[in-house]
């Protein structure tokens, strides 16, 4: 398929990348791997298959690595593919959707290991102050079928047909190079991951572009293979750092501050719940850091700094 390249970002992906590359090779297109400082056998797995690789000495985050890959590729259509995603169909339907008027990109159907569509993940609406506040306050856990959450997670969509959607998941997302360049690429401030693909799609929509969901292109996806290897407390701070950054960038100041207050209140709820159930002080340190991040954003109104590795 002329004009398509596949871009895969790896970080300690040794157990996943082999199957991903073997399936991707069947598409007959250029493949590039950008490795973010892996310390396992990821690079050996890639090299053994003769795939071109950019090996970073350290973890530059998903967004930073994606920008590297786009700069190194010439194809007008670039498929972002997670190393734990295995392509099971043609990529042509994605390219066709990318050729629709004002299209920025198109995402395919993601199946879990049992073959079920990953509804709630593979397509979502753009976050709103209400949806993020409910998430921070734990209300989506106790009432997952509330209307705000159902809309946010795309639970009301008909996934049997091609749809114009807000945000296809970055795990299997084809993007037009000209749109990526016009938007200035991905924002590396979302480090190491989370909300970077959401932010890109939102900025594209703000410029009048559309994204599509295309069920005819399919990949089997495990999910969270790399970030799950980090301690839970580190993942928590990273997730809230990106959560707050998105709010600061895309919500009006008052709405952004409401989200900050929800994060602060939700953090205290989590601390109390953990102390009551586990009698452990670990959550106090973790969510104390989250409270500090949210308080800084609440006071300053913006949050442009990046959560440092290891926080």
Q: What do these coordinates show?
A:
The strands form 2 sheets. Strands 1, 2, 3, 4, 5, 6, 8, 10 and 11 form a 9-stranded mixed β-sheet that branches. This protein has 12 helices and 11 strands. The chain folds into 2 domains: 4-119 and 159-221, Spore Coat Polysaccharide Biosynthesis Protein SpsA, Chain A; 230-300. By secondary structure, it is α/β, with parallel strands linked by helices.
Query: Which shape, going by the Cα principal axes?
Result: globular
Strand elements, count: 11
Fourth-level CATH superfamily of the largest domain = Spore Coat Polysaccharide Biosynthesis Protein SpsA, Chain A
CATH architecture of the largest domain: Alpha-Beta Complex
State the share of residues found in helices, binned by percent: 40-55%
Structural class: alpha/beta
Question: How do the SSEs run, as a string of H and E?
Answer: EHEHEHEEHEEHHHEEEHHEHHH
- The fold-level CATH name of the largest domain is Spore Coat Polysaccharide Biosynthesis Protein SpsA, Chain A
| Spatial extent as radius of gyration | 19 Å
Strand content of the residues, in percent? 15-25%
Distance between the termini: 43 Å
Task: Please render the helix and strand layout as text.
Elements: E1 4-10, H1 14-25, E2 30-36, H2 42-47, E3 52-56, H3 61-72, E4 77-81, E5 85-87, H4 92-98, E6 103-111, E7 123-124, H5 129-136, H6 139-142, H7 147-152, E8 163-165, E9 167-168, E10 172-176, H8 177-182, H9 196-206, E11 210-221, H10 232-250, H11 253-278, H12 282-300
Parallel strand pairs: 1-2, 1-4, 2-3, 6-11
Antiparallel strand pairs: 4-10, 5-11, 6-10, 7-9, 8-11
């Amino acid at each position: 398929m002329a004009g398509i390249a596949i871009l895969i970002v790896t970080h300690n992906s040794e157990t996943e990348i082999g199957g991903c590359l073997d399936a991707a090779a069947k598409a007959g297109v250029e493949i590039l791997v950008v490795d973010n400082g892996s310390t396992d056998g990821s690079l050996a797995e890639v090299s053994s298959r003769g795939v071109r690789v950019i090996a970073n000495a350290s973890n530059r985050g998903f967004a930073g690595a994606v920008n590297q890959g786009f700069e190194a590729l010439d194809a007008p259509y670039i498929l972002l593919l997670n190393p734990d995603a295995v392509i099971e169909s043609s990529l042509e339907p994605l390219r066709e959707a990318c050729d629709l008027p004002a299209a920025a990109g198109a995402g395919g159907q993601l199946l879990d290991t049992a073959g079920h569509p990953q509804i709630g993940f593979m397509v979502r609406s753009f976050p709103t102050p209400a949806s993020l506040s409910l998430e921070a306050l734990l209300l989506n856990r106790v009432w997952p079928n509330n209307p705000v959450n159902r809309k946010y997670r795309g639970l009301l969509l008909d996934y049997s047909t091609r749809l114009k959607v807000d945000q296809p998941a970055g795990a299997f997302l084809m993007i037009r190079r000209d749109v990526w360049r016009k938007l200035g690429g991905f924002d590396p401030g979302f480090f190491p991951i989370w909300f970077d693909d959401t932010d890109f799609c939102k900025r594209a929509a703000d410029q009048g572009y559309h994204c599509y969901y295309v069920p005819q292109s399919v990949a089997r996806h495990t999910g969270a293979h790399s970030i799950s290897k980090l301690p839970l407390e580190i993942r928590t701070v990273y997730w809230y750092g990106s959560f707050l950054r998105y709010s600061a960038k895309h919500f009006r100041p008052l709405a952004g501050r409401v989200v900050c207050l929800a994060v602060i209140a939700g953090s205290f709820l989590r601390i109390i719940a953990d102390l009551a159930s586990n009698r452990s002080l670990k959550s106090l340190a973790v969510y104390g850091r989250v409270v500090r991040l949210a308080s800084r954003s609440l006071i300053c109104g913006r949050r442009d700094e990046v959560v440092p590795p290891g926080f």
